[in-house]
Amino acid sequence: MTGQASGTPTLLADYFDGRSARARPVRLWLEHEQLVIHDQDLDGVERRYPIRQVQWPERTRHGQRQAQLPDGGVLSTRDAVGWDDWTAAATQGRGLGGGLAVRWFSSWRHSVVALGVVVAVGAVVWQWGVPAAADTIARHLPASVGESIGDESMDQLDGYLLKPSRLDAQAQQQWRARFAAMVASQPGESTSYELHFRDAGDTIGPNAFALPGGHIVVTDALLKLLGDQPDAVLGVLAHELGHVREQHGLRLTMRASLSGALLGFAIGDFSSLLAAAPAALTHASYSRDFEREADAQAKRLLIDSGRSPRAMLLPFERIGAWRAARTAQAKAERASEPKTLGREVGEHAKAGAGELLRIAFNTHPADEERMKFFER
Amino acid sequence: MQQHEEAAATGGLTGWPLSEFRKRKLDIQFTGSGSEYFRIWIVNLLLTIVTASLYWPFAKARRIRYFYANTLIDGHALSFHGDPWKMFRGHLLLLVLMGTYSAAGHFSPMAGLIAFGVMAAIWPALWRAGMQFRLGNTGWRGLRFGFAGTLKGAYGPALPIWICSAVILLVQMVGGPAGLPVDGKPRFGMVEKVVLLVAGAILLLTPWVIAAAKRYQHNGYRIAAQHGELRLGAGPVYWLSLKTLGVTLLITILMLVLAGAGFAIGMFVLHSPKFASAAAVVGAMVGYLLYFALLGPFFTARFQNLVWNGTTTEDLSFTSQLKVGALTWLTLKNWVLTLITLGLYRPFAVVHTTRLRLEAVSVTMDGDPETWVAGQGSAPQDAAGELAGDFFGIDMGL
Fold first, then answer.
1. In this complex, do A73 and B343 lie within 8 Å of one another by their Cβ atoms?
2. DSSP code of B376?
3. Cβ-Cβ contacts under 8 Å, B38 against chain A
4. CB environment B118-156: b (16+ within 10 A), e (fewer)
5. SS3 A75
6. Rounded to an integer, what is the distance from CA A357 to the centroid of its chain?
7. pLDDT, tens digit (0-9, with 9 covering 90-100), for B113-143
8. pTM to 2 decimal places
9. How many contacts, defined by CB atoms under 8 Å, are there between A and B?
């Protein structure tokens, strides 16, 4: 048995053989790409392991250093600094158990860079990755999935928010025929859709919206507001058909669930508290692009069916006026009678229900910008 | 035991009653640092993100090694021997299972039902495999821990919940989904009554299930010749659940009082209905936050004490004195700071919580750990299960 050559850096450590819990004091050194473990108690007993087969500990400021040997033995030392000095000296500064990750987390500067990259990647994924992934999923999902989501939402809305239309069957049939003729006049593309007439009361007002699976809902109030100008109604329906064609409902659902999952992953334990956040965060910016796409579809359909795109100006004007009137009325009511807590809560709940219809027609982007689009 | 008697006979020079003399308290210390774990965490996160989650098992192994190297029992750190490549296989297996499970329900109720059945059938086996892997790869003083719970035993605690869930599913398969709107109103018929009843039964059974699961876990723990034993009936867990319910009621009352006080001040002192309703909402929100901040720590602290104070082995007994107040205060602080820093405080929070929970526990040992030797190999009766756990490196965290 050989002892270490003079000048070789050595270290005192505890050795456990993996069978007994007794700690044996040993002296360590490196020799010919091997780790030598020299038992201090039983003089002369030496164990040798190829350096590469030892699981070396990563260098951290806190915690004990433990090297795991291939036969189940463990080397351990409480003196982390002594261990690091020894590995550095024994390998001419290269160290053992290092690596890219260790170099990065050992340095504050690198860690801050890592933080910056994580935030940047997160932002990019949030801004572009989630929509792109959601759109891809939406495109490849079997049509039945979109249909079942749409049917379910339709059932829910019918259960809680919408009432059967008060429009007589003949008038309904007339609108259906008009819209079908308009869609048929556009060559090539055919999209399956289903037109529903509903009474939505005052909270939603004159409006129309599209759900996944081709459901298009028109409220009685909209037909009343625009009934004297059939082309304006058809323009709104064309806009909703645009949503159907671009699968906006399904894409929105996928985006909301993906961003929710992402946020849940990032925030972890706090998900239960912030579960509602993603929905609120995503809508505004998403629907802007979707509305523009649907507007483009509506304009094309209006032109293809021989109508003027300017027909779409009227809905903006009249719905805008209706909204302004309602706001003024609400203000007057608030001024005249004090609110009770119960009423406040009730109104919040109603507003919340309205939020469900994030896909409804008269939302963002700013009406003026969109009106200009139809004027040209 | 024989061995100890001999040691006592030869080593007892003082004449003290030796069984008392040999007893020694082993302290548990946690030396991890929040700022260091923050750097490990962020670099792990970066690597996990840029590899599209494939680095995750390696990151997890690094995290476990860091926490183990900083967990000192009687001055000796724990060691983690898990092979990240094996954990990688387990990670993929769990991903595929969970993915299939969550996707199945979207396609048809029948597929969802089958997926649920399969999941329920294999989950206890995975749970056991996970514990075998984690404990089998945890070492102290060079000795490996082990988990000796049987496959059959793993299914025991899950059985009542499994039966109840099956009843709920079957009833709805026959009678249609519960709460189906009829004429705009959710229906309330036979199906709904049965579902409510069985859901109530699940709620009532949960403490029993928790106690049984903990017994199974702790009774399976092994190191050297030591066999874990947990004396914990369902009774104390029911009692603890009742007390937690009591805390919930207290918070609810507090919430109502806060909201009412805010409303009253606004209405009768400031004469502003607007302020009154705002104050009421703020009061209710504070109460709502208290639910999260108080209930978790209350149950966690009491439950940890209950479980570890009841755990013994031949030569070891455990004492856990985790204070509800300390854990609540720490949890509240962690939450506020995590929210303010948009999640960056999380690694600090994890380190501080680990320190508090670990250092509340101490071990009393009868004898000398130096005399311990590795167990005679965990009995090979369940070689297949052990192999599965080891092959897939399933680690669900204990």
1. no
2. S
3. 111
4. eebeeebbbbbbbbbbbbbbbbbbbbbbbbbbeeebbbb
5. strand
6. 19
7. 788 788 788 888 888 888 888 898 999 999 9
8. 0.76
9. 145
